[in-house]
Design brief:
This protein has helices at 8-23, 32-44, 105-122, 144-150, 153-156, 210-226, 266-286, 306-320, 338-344, 372-386; strands spanning 49-54, 58-64, 72-78, 128-134, 159-168, 176-177, 181-184, 186-195, 199-200, 235-243, 250-251, 254-263, 290-297, 302-304, 325-326, 347-353. The chain is of the alpha/beta class. The strands form 4 sheets. An 8-stranded mixed beta sheet has the order 1-2-4-3-5-16-6-15, sandwiched between helices. Strands 10-12-8-13 form a 4-stranded antiparallel beta sheet, with helices on one face. A two-stranded antiparallel ribbon has the order 7-14. Helix 3 (105-122) crosses helix 10 (372-386).
Length: 389
Amino acid sequence: MHSVEQFRDLQREVTAWRRYLHENPELDFQVHNTARFVTEKLASFGINHIETGIAETGIVALIQGQGGDGPTIGLRADMDALPILEASNKPWSSKVPGKMHACGHDGHTAMLLGAAKYLAKTRNFKGCVALIFQPAEEVELPSGGLKMVREGIMDRFSISKVFGMHNAPGTEVGTFSICDGPIMASQDDFDIVVKGRGGHAAKPHETIDPVVIAAQIIVGLQTLVSRNTNPIDSLVISVTKLNAANAYNIIADHVEMAGTVRTHVPDLRDFAERQIMAAAQGIAHGFGADIEFKYRRSVPVTFNHTQETNLAIRAARSLVGSASVVENIKPRMGAEDFAYMLEARPGAMIFIGNGPSAGVHNPAYDFNDEALPYGIGYWVSLVETLLAA
């Protein structure tokens, strides 16, 4: 059993790593400097099995325990930043205009590096730990998580279970939260082109106005959620893009629309794909117009497996006590590409408190360095719980 105080000695060093990563953000698969930094740190810990270039810039490093034979468990951290101009005003703010670690992946990477240093020194477990440093979590189709799975990391490194951790703004530092089953939503994207007949804005009767039709479609799509699905099930359909003419006095020939679908229920992805097209087509035909429709399945539901969720709860409790671990949080509607790894192997995602920070994907966001020893401690506790020597 560990206490957070055992990991305070690492906090200053890991904080320096985290702030270096924050100052030097990189996007999607192009995390070359970040991957180099991670690889050099892992080697300095005495880890001699480090494989790079997975999914372009991903890394998997193996630490063998001293307790004898046993399974291999995977611990995953994401490394990429976001294309956002930082407004945190911290001394360690991004040095790269238009790029920042607005989701805390710098903290995720630093915590796993801290755990790697501790585990490589103590090796108080049996079996093996696979440290998974993943690029391009913020990318869709294919994301870094999907590419790493497709490139066979689970079989290649004999990973039997896999675990992830994400910071949670607005929850107290030193707390953890999790739930069994769906914990984050799937994400799909759709594009609709409404094809009408353009003309002069002063003569709408001579046109088939795609703007008015698009407005009707936007309203109509909301009834798919409010009147066609069980209100207990979570489904969000959001139209997020709308593009028509570029002049005040023109009714365009067509309108381009796009949006996103989020749900915790896999069957509702089928419903959304089918019904969005049917509703948009029906409304357009009613006005004498037509549509083009595309639907892309992106990230699946992030689904925590029961046994592994219970193991994660045990590990968190052993570190911070039962009162600081919430076991049944409501699932979130954000998406997370760790879902692909949970489709490939049983495992669990847990949230770690980030305190009263700005929300993720916000220009004012910053990872809370006070959370670092808790994250390091969780990883160590999890390994020694699962792979007890």
